[in-house]
């Protein structure tokens, strides 16, 4: 059985439900789990403290600007410093805990996390998506210049509104583009000067993990597109003992689920319902754990214009969610590029079929004609016709609802979900045995140096808190393909371990290669550091379960 350290900074929602399910399932199978989080994670929605020991280490600073989706350079740097400090403190406790593996949930501010830089354990992050605001049009990409130098108020509304739900009421009003008076006025475009800073850190942190777990093939492709990093698909599941038909009769409404803002496609759903003839048009009930105020106002106006009975309900209990999912004639799932989406499977488990748009992760969970219907695009008339097939026929929705629940029980059960994460953690643990030896190396006053290691630093400098290093190193007579390299830098008693990424060095093979190829022996490090003037640099190489170290630089 594994001893698992967990770190996360998750708000309420599907990501937190996923983590809670994973931790609960792992504990039930006999694994030991402890959790760490900053005080910015949601403390009330499915708290891990109910099932494991949870440590809360606050962020040193957390101004309201942290919650904006696009941040200026000053705020981005302050946020990164605060997260690095929090993770360093967590790592000090984790490193003393005798754990086998580090399992990390996403960060609401950054998606990735610096925690693995400081924890000397095999590590993985369950990453549903990169920081979408940088890589997707929500509704526009942030780095696109404004037309004719004019501010796009819609950009401001969507980016600041989506996370406004996380703030106290007074701060929500401060971020409202209408201001305190409620009068319409031109919004000020967000300062995107911190975008490159945060994006670089996000990539650096992603590279620091031994592996990345994605919740769908679509998410794996998104991670590859944003980071050029591989990831492993680890599918989720639904607790079909918890999500089950309530026994209540079906009613004449369709249901949507998710935070009310642009990415959830509430506008698409309203237009789809509005395309159904008014004589048979169902109501649209939308359950959300929060709402962007301006978006919600726009959706209410859109629904009124299209004569759609739109009923948003916020922060309802799980019991109410299950009741609504059971009573709905259908779920209408219109999210834009949702990475996975638990909601359709939860509806299926409650005996309700889904009508959705074939984009994002839903293409992997909804089989057209089995547990729902998929439209090729967001055309309202097409979605409306698919909805009518369920809302107008008692027999169709009953038969498809039964098939939908059977499909979830067979393919998306919680047992299968826990099997997936347990297998992945065991694989990561076995594949990364060498990294567990790093803690012993780093704790020694003088790392063990080996004579069968060759290496060189081609570049080494620290500029503005960023370590830049280039070089090469290998263990003689061992191939470098698949090897892992680390730089241990020290200044007195202060030490940091930086994982290097590989670069191709055919010149080294040409010079040294006899019994082994050394093309993959190059290393590159570009990462944040607290050590301004390192006096010692040690290269540590792990290859074929063998670990060696050699001193590359000494300024003592």
Short recap of the structure:
This protein is α/β, with parallel strands linked by helices and 556 residues long. It is built from 18 helices and 21 strands. The radius of gyration is 26 Å and the shape is elongated.
Summed up, the helix count is 18
Quickly give the structural class.
alpha/beta
Helix content: 25-40%
Largest sheet: 7 strands, parallel
Distance between the termini: 44 Å
Q: Based on DSSP secondary structure assignment, what is the total number of beta strands?
A: 21
Q: Order of strands across the biggest sheet?
A: 3-2-1-4-5-6-7
CATH topology of the largest domain: Rossmann fold
Low-confidence stretches: 149-187
* Oligomeric description of these chains: single chain
Classify the beta-strand content into a percent band. 15-25%
Supply the number of structural domains.
3
Q: Let me know the CATH homologous superfamily of the largest domain.
A: Glycogen Phosphorylase B
CATH class of the largest domain: Alpha Beta
Q: Could you report the average pLDDT, rounded to the nearest whole number?
A: 88
CATH architecture of the largest domain: 3-Layer(aba) Sandwich
